[in-house]
Amino acid sequence: MFSGIVEEMATVVAIRKEHGNIHFSLECSFINELKIDQSISHNGVCLTVVNIENNSYTVTAMKETLDKSNLRFLKPGDKVNVERSMKLNERLDGHIVQGHVDGTAICKEIKDADGSTYFTFEYDFDKAMASRGYFTVDKGSVTVNGVSLTVCNPTENSFTVAIIPYTYENTNFRYITTGSVVNIEFDILGKYIARLHSLTE
């Protein structure tokens, strides 16, 4: 479980393919605090640490994860938003994030807003999935590349988020351009409400 408050950007230092899986090795500042089997969010995807050596740690992404996320596009040198799992005795500064990415979206527009930046993302609309809570609502929460954000101007298949300068400088939003593919996770609360509604109809 995560909060969507990114700790820092880790750097991909090596990628190794094995059967349908990909092993990613990354460097970050808290490498000495990690342990095997620990869960870390990578661009919003929860992955397990499987190895630690040579000042880097390794996680493995299976085919389903690769198919549903932008991790398949990573290459050495890329920056990845990382967050360790929440501690139950801390404040929830973002929102409840599972680290189970629902799919990807494409950046369609970037606008300056007097210091902050508006990013508009578009995703494939699926009516059946929307009925199960896979959509955005105005002033609701959404996770983009692991960052907890507030939705504005949602449509059937798109939404906009406003990025403050601090978030822009300290996450990989600074590398997003028009056409970039990002990971999105819809709010788990919306999914539960949609499921409850379907059971009481």
UniProtKB/TrEMBL annotation:
Pathway annotation from the record: Cofactor biosynthesis; riboflavin biosynthesis; riboflavin from 2-hydroxy-3-oxobutyl phosphate and 5-amino-6-(D-ribitylamino)uracil: step 2/2
Residue ranges of domain Lumazine-binding in the record: 1-95, 96-197
GO molecular function, one term: riboflavin synthase activity
InterPro entries: ATP_synth_asu-like_sf (IPR023366), Lumazine-bd (IPR001783), Lumazine-bd_dom (IPR026017), Riboflavin_synthase-like_b-brl (IPR017938)
BP GO annotations: riboflavin biosynthetic process
Record carries keyword Transferase: yes
Catalysed conversion reaction: 2 6,7-dimethyl-8-(1-D-ribityl)lumazine + H(+) = 5-amino-6-(D-ribitylamino)uracil + riboflavin
Residue spans of the Lumazine-binding repeats: 1-95, 96-197
Entry keyword NAD: no
Alphabetic keyword roster: Repeat, Riboflavin biosynthesis, Transferase
EC annotation from Swiss-Prot or TrEMBL: 2.5.1.9
PROSITE patterns listed in its UniProt record: LUMAZINE_BIND
UniProt cross-references to Pfam families, sorted A to Z: Lum_binding (PF00677)
PANTHER family to which the protein is assigned, alphabetical: RIBOFLAVIN SYNTHASE, RIBOFLAVIN SYNTHASE ALPHA CHAIN
NCBIfam families: PRK09289.1, ribE
Function: Catalyzes the dismutation of two molecules of 6,7-dimethyl-8-ribityllumazine, resulting in the formation of riboflavin and 5-amino-6-(D-ribitylamino)uracil.
Protein name: Riboflavin synthase
